[in-house]
User: Fold this.
Amino acid sequence: MRRLVNAGTRLLASVSRLVQTRISMAFVKVAKLADLPPGQVMEATVDGRYFAVCNTGSEITCLDGECACTGGPLSQGTLRDGLVICPWHGWRYDCKTGVCAYDADMRQAMFPVKVEDGEIWIDASQPLEVVR
Ligand code: FES
Assistant:
């Protein structure tokens, strides 16, 4: 019985390490914080997908980089009053929620961001759930 308990404990520890490794591997370093001044948006590419990484001045956020309109490059837009503005037709998205300023039912997917040691990391594996 004791052997069985020990084997179960080892198995749980292995699973826990795997889960922790998977979680930490999901984040990918995309830029140095110093390269993204407040009020700027920049492009990040992860696994061939484009993202718009925004520095609102109070936080770093990450939106799907392809505009919901017709796929314009949000990362090449501008940031104003907490909204990222698409360079193609001017659609605006809230940097913190991804919600379109013209149609609240439209939303760019948002992705987790962390800043560690002056570097920006994003997790492109799964969009954030945004509560409205
Ligand atoms: S492609 Fe972005 S506003 Fe049209």
